[in-house]
Specification:
This protein has 266 residues and is an alpha+beta fold. It folds into two domains: 55 residues, no CATH class; 191 residues, no CATH class. It is built from two helices and 20 strands. Strand 16 and strand 17 form a beta hairpin. Helix 1 runs antiparallel to helix 2. The radius of gyration is 31 Å and the shape is elongated. The chain starts with a helix and ends with a helix.
Amino acid sequence: MTSWTRWTTTAALASALALVPTTAHADTSRASASPLSVTTAAGATVAASTTSATSDGTAQDGTTPAVGALGGQSVVTAGVVASDVLARVDGTSAACAGLVGTGGSVRVGSSGACTTNPGGGGVSVTLALGVTLTADAITASCTASSTGGSTTRTTIVNGKVNGTSISATGTSGSLLGLVNLTTGAPSTSSAGAGPVSATALRLSLLSGTAAVRIGSVTCGENAVVVPTPALPLEGWPVALVGAAVAVVAGRALLRRSTGAAAGPLS
């Protein structure tokens, strides 16, 4: 290989390498969960802490707070708050939250699905004298993916208001002429990357301020991280022109050097 060939080849390769994408981070993801919010008859709001997880694509993030009773209120008289959130480096995230019985828990599994352990003793919510909600467990969960495909799910195990059965139907309306009741759907799915949100159950008095919100979760928005070239797109024409100039200059240099080596004819 002649010197000019090596030189022009090196210049062209350098220009081409500037267009090669750099190594990309994995996709980003996020999720959050709020197990319980209570508004008392006096209008005061007491809520369990919201937990969240966020991944920038370099490390997994997850939080499973300790299960426990919500203090500072007397509306929820039985049951403990539980939540779990997870954000992975592959652009997927999941969350679950709600109320379970003593010794119960919620946990995001390896597939992103939420596993609920109802525990024992059940859940009991008394909004006012004569208005009581009971259940073994009430939870909501969600999943999201940066490549598309998000889900939400509500689980109400043996739910009743004053003995009238309730379930996750995704509907809202008055019940027994005493309360407004809204439940999340048993399951939903969408093609997008989120965000998607769900609340397992909302219950409020038709007259008065007392209300509860049980199991609120959000997954996403998760994002695909697109590899970026070492040289921005707007610099590509300059790099290509530079490679062409290098080739032309190399050829000119070769002609001069060849002519000088040959010398004048006698």
